[in-house]
Amino acid sequence: QVRLVESGGGLVQPGGSLRLSCVASGTIFSINGMGWYRQAPGKQRELVARITSGGSTNYADSVKGRFTISRDNAKSTVYLQMNSLKPEDTAVYFCNRAWASAYDWGQGTQVTVSS
Q1: Do 58 and 47 contact (CB within 8 A), yes or no?
Q2: How far apart are CA 58 and CA 115, in angstroms?
Q3: Which of 3, 34, 54, 108 is the most exposed place for a label (fewest CB within 10 A)?
Q4: pLDDT of residue 28
């Protein structure tokens, strides 16, 4: 059974930074494209960044230039470096597969951007 565990969220002031991590177990991590998604209160979950097994990336327009997705296949971990955070980035952040059917979702990690 695949398990995804996200961490690294917290409360940060506008303009601040956070680095999220997601560890995957129960899957051959290196062959999967992976993505970071977020869900704000009252909104649908949206994809914000994704990375192929080979390391190619793309981003939602709303985070382009501010967020960076990366992966460490040896650690079965995908990261999301978030800089220049804005209040509208406030959401629960999840990781999951990209370009393929989703695994069961983890609990996510809360990111709150507020002064």
Answers
A1: no
A2: 29
A3: 54
A4: 82
CB 78 within 8 A of CB 71: yes
The token pair that represents 84 in the structure block: 């220049």
> Phi, psi (5° rounding) for residue 46?
-130, 150
β-strand pairing of 109-113 with 10-12:
parallel
Helices (H), 1-115: none
Q: Are 94 and 108 in contact (CB under 8 A)?
A: yes
Token output for 25 = 């177990």
Q: Which of 44, 41, 48 is nearest to 22 (CA)?
A: 48
Q: Which two tokens stand for residue 33?
A: 């494209």
Residue range 24-56, pLDDT digits in tens: 998 888 889 999 999 999 999 999 999 999 999
